[in-house]
Structure formats: structure tokens, C-alpha cells
């Protein structure tokens, strides 16, 4: 068995402009994508399946994501009875912002660290939802989960990630504080935060 870790990303029904609010709770969930280290599988939860996700979150996994503290978790809060604030979180964007004093995009970190970019943007996901293109929506969400997972694992292995600087788009190094444990008796990668 792997460790109790979930890499999480979600897509919303609406934008802030659509709602006239800056409250993430007003955006609504279409899908939540995760990579679950317990069974080493990618999974998608549609809005009507969020009860199953809540059951999984009750085990208090480490939630890994990019901007999940300020966006994903507030969007999810109205759907759950459990207190999401009781679940441990590694928000890669929060770690980057603490170190740099400013925010960077997931695309910036993905391009500099992994040499690839996202397959689209959140507005694409809303268009897929509105058009009923669930396969495209789920694929887009899981692609962001995969990129976030690979950044997390890269940082765990190399104790650094990279980002593109704001002004000249130069690749810059950022030390990180999560590390990979040596595999135990199981043949899986395990993670530990300091």
C-alpha cells in the first residue's frame, strides 16, 4: 500500500465574472480529479459523486495541489460536512509564494520544471462543461493533476523545482522542503514532509 496522499485539482461551473462574486464557494464543482497514492490510480469525481470523495477525505490524506488553499478547498467547502481545514495540505503555490514573495502560474512551474505546459485553461473546462463534453473536461482536469503530481515528485526527488521569472522568462531554481523516502518493503515511492 502507498501513503495516504491525494494530488487534487478541480474544475468549476462558473467564473468569478459569471457569479459577480470573488467567493470561490459560489463557483460550483463540475469535476474533481485526484491521483491517489494509496492505490496509485487517477480518479475523477463528478459533482454527484462528491460523497465518495468526502469518504476518502475523512481519512485525512495529505492533499497536494497548486493553489488549493485559496481556491480548490474553498470551492469544495459547501459540498462537505467534514472540516477541510483539519486535513493536511501541501499547496505548491503557497510554498512558491512564501519563498518568492509573489505568485507564479502552474504553467510557469510546469514549463521550467518538466519542460511541458498545461493542455488548456480553466475557461476551456467551463466550455467543455457547458457543451456537455465530459470526456474532454475530465481529461483536462486529470492532465492538471498529472502535472501537479509530477512537479510534487520532482521536488521530492531533487529537493528543488523551477519556475519562469516574470520579466525575462528565465528559468530560476527554487529549493523545496519535501523529500522522497527510500522505498520500504513495498515497491512504491513514499513521501514525507518535514
The named CATH superfamily: Ribonuclease H-like superfamily/Ribonuclease H
Radius of gyration: 16 Å
β-sheet strand percentage: 15-25%
Helix content: 25-40%
Name the CATH class: Alpha Beta
Order of strands in the sheet with the most strands? 3-2-1-4-5
Bulk shape: globular
Which segments are poorly predicted (pLDDT under 50) over 5 or more consecutive residues? 182-194
The structure class reads alpha/beta
Mean pLDDT figure: 87
What is the element string, with H for helices and E for strands?
EHEEHEHEHHHHEEEE
Number of domains: 1
Structure summary, number of beta strands: 9
How many H/I helical runs? Answer: 7
CATH topology: Nucleotidyltransferase, domain 5
For the record, give the distance between the C-alpha atoms at the N and C termini, rounded to a whole number: 21 Å
CATH architecture: 2-Layer Sandwich
Major sheet description: 5 strands, mixed
Structural write-up:
The protein has about 190 residues and is of the alpha/beta class. It has one domain: 2-Layer Sandwich (Nucleotidyltransferase, domain 5), CATH 3.30.420. It has 7 helices and 9 strands, in the order E-H-E-E-H-E-H-E-H-H-H-H-E-E-E-E. The strands form 3 sheets. Strands 3-2-1-4-5 form a 5-stranded mixed beta sheet, with helices on both faces. The chain has a two-stranded antiparallel ribbon with strand order 6-7. A hairpin with a 4-residue loop joins strand 2 (about 30-35) and strand 3 (about 40-45). Helix 5 crosses helix 7 and helix 6 packs antiparallel against helix 7. Residues about 180-194 have low confidence and may be disordered.
Amino acid at each position: 500500500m502507498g501513503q495516504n496522499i491525494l494530488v487534487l485539482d478541480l474544475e468549476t461551473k462558473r467564473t468569478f465574472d459569471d457569479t459577480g462574486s470573488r467567493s470561490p464557494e459560489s463557483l460550483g464543482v463540475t469535476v474533481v480529479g485526484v491521483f491517489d497514492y494509496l492505490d496509485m490510480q487517477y480518479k475523477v469525481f463528478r459533482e454527484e459523486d462528491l460523497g465518495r470523495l468526502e469518504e476518502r477525505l475523512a481519512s485525512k490524506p495529505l492533499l497536494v495541489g497548486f493553489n488549493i488553499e485559496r481556491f480548490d478547498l474553498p470551492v469544495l467547502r459547501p459540498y462537505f460536512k467534514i472540516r477541510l481545514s483539519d486535513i493536511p495540505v501541501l499547496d505548491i503555490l503557497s510554498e512558491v509564494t512564501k519563498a518568492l514573495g509573489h505568485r507564479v502560474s502552474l504553467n510557469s512551474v510546469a514549463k521550467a520544471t518538466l519542460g511541458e505546459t498545461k493542455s488548456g485553461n480553466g475557461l476551456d473546462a467551463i466550455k467543455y462543461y457547458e457543451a456537455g463534453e465530459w470526456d474532454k473536461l475530465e481529461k483536462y482536469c486529470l492532465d492538471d493533476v498529472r502535472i501537479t503530481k509530477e512537479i510534487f515528485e520532482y521536488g521530492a526527488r531533487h529537493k528543488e523545482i523551477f519556475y519562469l521569472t516574470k520579466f525575462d522568462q528565465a528559468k530560476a531554481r527554487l529549493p523545496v522542503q519535501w523529500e522522497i523516502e527510500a522505498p520500504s518493503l513495498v515497491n512504491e515511492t513514499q513521501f514525507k514532509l518535514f
